[in-house]
């Protein structure tokens, strides 16, 4: 019998949760324009909107806050963070940023020129936005299986080497400033990339003089999947797998708000001295001095400590298993989700969940709103809304995956919270045909999923037709 795993920590402080009535949730959802990003945190029961900046810090991290050096230049806390990144990730040069998109902005401005192509293993919203704003065209080079939620593969985030090779031949290596490899792949369902694939991508790119830059936001989770699934790594420590993984890149952007276990901060890392020199100049313009880059000394102290805590084998094992705990309950109830379950979230397949809705009726957005209405659980859309519009035709980009992301914050919730989430999702699945689609009433020009507003398509303007069947958490 497989032994069950408890949390590898004990709770030292608690934050009370509020439970609104169904009518209160209904009003909150209406005021938010049926966009879960616009719901007030005080009105949320279990918040699975994102794992970005929502981790619970350890007592050692809270203690580290008290010794933060807030010097404007040459901060001692910066030296600690720099040393931690060099030791654990292996890069030569590091620049702190206020969060991951700060690093994406600097990298895109320095590396991209109009007319370039940036291939990647599926897009991410802010990453692609920075690339396109600087004149590049994003090209998806992930394996085809990643676009099918039902296919079970151990490394569904892998780069298709033939797609990458074809692009290099078609446009020329001089028009590819770098290849962006996400580890893990968020938009594919938190799917990992194998060590072999990372090695092969690096070798192919370097034959043509093309840099490989990682989106390393969830790299520790990727390292865990390699330990678990790839031959030859089962007896390796996570920190050793991580170091080898990152050696197959020329640099990375990092949002410290995920695997670094902090609430704010990030960095841009690289091995090229010339790129580092130019990045230092741009950091001053957009972020701050190279020795703080938009972060306070106390936040750099907490991140340095978090980097060491993140590579603890017991911590990361529990992290992945808690996500699987939720995912397995939904699989057992025949709820359509992305399989296999990824590292940071369970993704509902909204196309299969709500087959009566067309993609232009925004099924993932509607399902995320219905989940909040049903139980006060906040999730987020990752589908046609997140994909935006084609900049040339103005038409909606239509990704094959239309998903709702149930994102699990690190060290925040217990498995009892996961049970509540599972019960709500399963309840909605049983009455899925009653869920209405949405129309978009307000559409921002960029990254529209953050601020767009919607209303139900149903004749009586209800998201769920049978109100009496909606579960109340009161």
Automatic annotation (TrEMBL):
Instruction: Kindly give the InterPro entries that the UniProt entry links to this protein.
Output: ArAA_b-elim_lyase/Thr_aldolase (IPR001597), Beta-eliminating_lyase (IPR011166), PyrdxlP-dep_Trfase (IPR015424), PyrdxlP-dep_Trfase_major (IPR015421), PyrdxlP-dep_Trfase_small (IPR015422), Tryptophanase_CS (IPR018176), Tyr_phenol_ly (IPR013441)
**One of the Pfam families matching this protein, by short name:** Beta_elim_lyase
| Identification of the protein by name | Tyrosine phenol-lyase
**PROSITE patterns, A to Z:** BETA_ELIM_LYASE (PS00853)
As its record notes, the protein acts as a catalyst of:
L-tyrosine + H2O = phenol + pyruvate + NH4(+)
**List of residues that carry N6-(pyridoxal phosphate)lysine:** 258
User: What gene name is given for the protein in this entry?
Assistant: tpl
CDD domains noted in UniProt? Tnase_like
Q: Which HAMAP family match?
A: Tyr_phenol_lyase
Q: Which cofactor does it need?
A: pyridoxal 5'-phosphate
| Endpoints of the signal sequence | none
Query: Which residue range or ranges hold the Aromatic amino acid beta-eliminating lyase/threonine aldolase domain?
Result: 47-423
**Keywords noted in UniProt:** Lyase, Pyridoxal phosphate
Provide the E.C. number(s) assigned to this enzyme: 4.1.99.2
Broadest EC class assigned to this enzyme: lyase
The family line of this record is:
Belongs to the beta-eliminating lyase family.
Single GO molecular function: tyrosine phenol-lyase activity
Instruction: Offer one example of a GO biological process linked to this entry.
Output: tyrosine metabolic process
| Subunit-level organization | Homotetramer.
């Amino acid at each position: 019998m497989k032994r069950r795993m408890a949390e590898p920590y004990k709770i030292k402080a608690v934050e009370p949760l509020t439970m609104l009535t169904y009518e209160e949730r209904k009003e909150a959802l209406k005021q938010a324009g049926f966009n879960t990003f616009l719901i007030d945190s005080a009105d949320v029961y279990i918040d699975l909107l994102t794992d970005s900046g929502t981790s619970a810090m350890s007592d050692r991290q809270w203690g580290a806050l008290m010794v933060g050096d807030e010097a404007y230049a040459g901060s001692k806390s910066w030296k600690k963070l720099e040393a931690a990144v060099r030791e654990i990730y292996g890069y030569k040069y590091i620049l702190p940023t206020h969060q991951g998109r700060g690093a994406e902005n600097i990298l895109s401005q320095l590396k991209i020129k109009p007319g370039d192509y940036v291939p990647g293993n599926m897009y991410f919203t802010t990453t692609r936005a920075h690339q396109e704003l600087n004149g590049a065209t994003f090209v998806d080079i992930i394996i085809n299986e990643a676009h099918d939620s039902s296919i079970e593969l151990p490394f569904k985030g892998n780069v298709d080497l033939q797609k990458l090779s074809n692009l290099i031949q078609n446009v020329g290596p001089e028009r590819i400033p770098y290849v962006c490899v996400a580890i893990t792949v968020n938009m594919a369902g938190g799917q990992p990339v194998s060590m072999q694939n990372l090695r092969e991508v690096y070798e192919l790119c370097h034959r043509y003089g093309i840099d490989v830059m990682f989106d390393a936001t969830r790299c520790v989770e990727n390292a865990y999947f390699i330990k678990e699934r790839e031959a030859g790594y089962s007896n390796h420590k996570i920190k050793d797998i991580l170091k080898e993984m990152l050696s197959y890149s020329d640099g990375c952007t990092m949002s410290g708000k995920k695997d670094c276990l902090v609430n704010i901060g990030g960095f841009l890392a690289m091995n090229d001295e010339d790129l580092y020199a130019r990045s230092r100049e741009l950091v001053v313009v957009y972020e701050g001095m190279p020795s703080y880059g938009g972060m306070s000394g106390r936040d750099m102290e907490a991140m340095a400590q978090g980097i060491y805590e993140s590579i603890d084998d017991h911590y990361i094992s529990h992290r992945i298993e808690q996500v699987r705990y939720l995912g397995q309950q939904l699989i057992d109830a025949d709820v359509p989700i992305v399989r296999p379950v990824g590292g940071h979230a369970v993704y509902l397949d909204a196309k299969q969940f709500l087959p009566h809705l067309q993609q232009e009726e925004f099924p993932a957005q509607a399902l995320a709103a219905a989940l909040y209405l049903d139980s006060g659980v906040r999730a987020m859309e990752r589908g046609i809304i997140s994909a935006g519009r084609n900049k040339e035709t103005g038409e909606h980009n239509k990704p094959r995956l239309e998903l709702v992301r149930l994102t699990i914050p690190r060290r925040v919730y217990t498995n009892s919270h996961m049970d509540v989430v599972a019960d709500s999702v399963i309840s909605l699945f049983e009455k899925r045909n009653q869920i209405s689609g949405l129309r978009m009433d307000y559409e921002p020009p960029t990254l529209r999923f953050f601020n767009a507003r919607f209303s139900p398509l149903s004749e009586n303007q209800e998201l769920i037709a049978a109100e009496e069947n909606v579960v109340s958490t009161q």
